[in-house]
UniProtKB/TrEMBL annotation:
Its EC number is 5.4.4.2. It comes from Heyndrickxia camelliae. This is isochorismate synthase. GO terms for biological process: salicylic acid biosynthetic process. Signal peptide: none annotated. The keyword ATP-binding does not apply.
Length: 453
């Protein structure tokens, strides 16, 4: 199918073209692709197996719906794909066209002005996309074809992308100077933790995750590419993402997968329970042992395992969950970690799994709805996309969503960064406060902020 033939259909449809390409530079990353784009995304998994970079926005799917947002995105994407012409000369070895985006943490919460750019579901199909998958690279060009389109548009796009990829000049790796760095009401946050601990002691709730925010003001606008480069350099073992829309940018380095689906194989991650790291290897190992044996942290973790296991048992033919957690270590923190695998039943889509899993008790709490209400009442904050599911799904139903933690929103010369932690009945406000300080560090360091000891 050529673009010319697609045009003859005489209605507006998605035309997508994918080919395998040889990249001009042996660079591990192509973060410069996002430079000067208003709408873009960059996505990398911890193993560097999949890197997806998209720029331009040919088609957007947004929703401010509360209960129907997952379903709505799925329905619209299915409709688009039903009519689309997809020419995949790479024989499905890349991803082909895909939808990238995210869901806010809690659509029932009041929206704060800093998050006005992002809807409760915000997804788009990029105009130009480059994918690195298992060391092969692919170029995907997407156009909405209508009778007025110039048939040479694909050639223009391809040339544009090759020019971008051939770019030699580097951006400076400097961020502007910070003029203000402020923790938002730390005293009030510790009081909220105490309040939640009393509720938990009353016994009708098991766990509530409370988060807080920092605001950083820069002398000039922050360049998203520079922040992305810092995250890529500093957080190699995490998912690194940057999601740009209308000049705002949501970026982070999350260690936490929500769900990955490739064919019938599905994977999720239980990540909850944390302890700091030490520069001394023996000390670091000893801290890990303390975490593995700590009753409070094991309880926090087990609530996440039980919930994810329930969702997997409902939607999968086979489920594989280890009996005991192991440790996941990032540069600043170590977590209790249990991977969950399954073979999903037919006709269960990735968005259906996302909807069932979000929010796990690693971000919300147990029981889910009561915990969400407590968060809304005591956190006094709009999490926006922080702690929400963000990711991609391709035209064959494969995809991956992560939990957008260790993240922040960049708005011109301001950044808002977020960190939270699981509160259980024997939590101590000061310890939880210190834990959130550690969880701010990946974003703070990448932004050039002052990290407390
Ligand atoms: C809510 C966050 O972390 C979650 C993920 C891993 C460990 C967590 C914990 O130990 O509390 C949190 O549940 C955050 O980083 O903002």
């Amino acid at each position: 199918m050529s673009l010319k033939q697609a045009k003859e259909i005489n209605k507006t449809i998605l035309f997508s073209y994918t080919e395998k390409v040889a990249l001009p530079h042996p660079l591990p990353t192509y973060s410069s692709v996002i430079r000067n784009s208003e709408d873009y995304f960059y996505w990398k998994d911890p193993q560097n197996e999949t890197i997806i970079i998209g720029i331009g926005n040919v088609l957007q799917i947004v929703s401010e719906q509360i209960d129907e947002r997952f379903h709505l995105v799925e329905e619209k994407w299915d409709n688009i794909l039903e009519n689309a012409f997809i020419y995949d000369s790479a024989n499905q070895s890349g991803t082909g066209p895909l939808l990238f985006g995210g869901f806010t943490f809690d659509p029932n919460n009041r929206k704060k002005p800093e998050w006005e750019t992002f809807s409760h579901a915000t997804f788009f199909v990029p105009e130009i996309m480059i994918t690195l998958k298992e060391k092969e690279s692919f170029l995907t060009l997407n156009v909405m074809v209508n009778p007025e389109n110039d048939t040479t548009i694909l050639e223009h796009l391809k040339k544009q992308m090759m020019n971008i990829l051939n770019r030699k000049e580097q951006t400076s790796d400097l961020l502007p100077a910070i003029i203000e760095q402020e923790e938002m009401n730390p005293k009030g946050w510790k009081e909220s933790v105490s309040k939640v601990v009393s509720l938990l002691k009353d016994g009708y709730l098991d766990k509530v995750v409370l988060a807080r925010k920092m605001r950083i003001k820069f002398q000039q606008k922050v360049v998203p590419e520079v922040l992305l480069n810092h995250l890529l350099e500093q957080q190699k073992g995490s998912y690194v993402f940057s999601f740009g829309l209308d000049n705002d940018s949501f970026a982070g380095a999350s260690p936490e997968r929500l769900v990955k689906k490739i064919g019938e194989n599905v994977l999720s991650t239980c990540l909850a329970g944390s302890i700091k790291r030490s520069g001394d290897a023996n000390q670091d190992q000893a801290l890990g042992k303390i975490l593995l044996e700590d009753k409070k942290n094991r309880h926090e973790h087990q609530l996440v395992v039980s919930m994810i296991a329930d969702v997997f048992r409902e939607h999968c033919r086979e489920v594989d969950i280890p009996d005991e957690p192991t440790l996941m270590k990032t540069p600043d923190i170590q977590h209790l970690y249990t991977p969950v695998k399954g073979k999903v039943k037919e006709n269960t889509s990735i968005l259906h799994l996302v909807e069932s899993l979000h929010p796990t008790p690693a971000l919300g709490g147990t029981p889910r709805q009561d915990a969400m209400k407590v968060i809304r009442d005591v956190e006094n904050m709009d999490r926006g996309l922080y702690a929400g599911p963000i990711g991609w799904m391709d035209y064959r139903g494969n995809g991956e969503f992560i939990v957008a933690i260790r993240s922040g929103l960049i708005k011109g010369n301001e950044a808002f960064i977020y960190a939270g932690c699981g509160i259980v009945a024997d939590s101590n406000p000061e310890d939880e406060y210190l834990e959130t300080k550690i969880k701010f560090r990946p974003m703070l360091r990448a932004l050039g902020g002052k990290e407390d000891e």
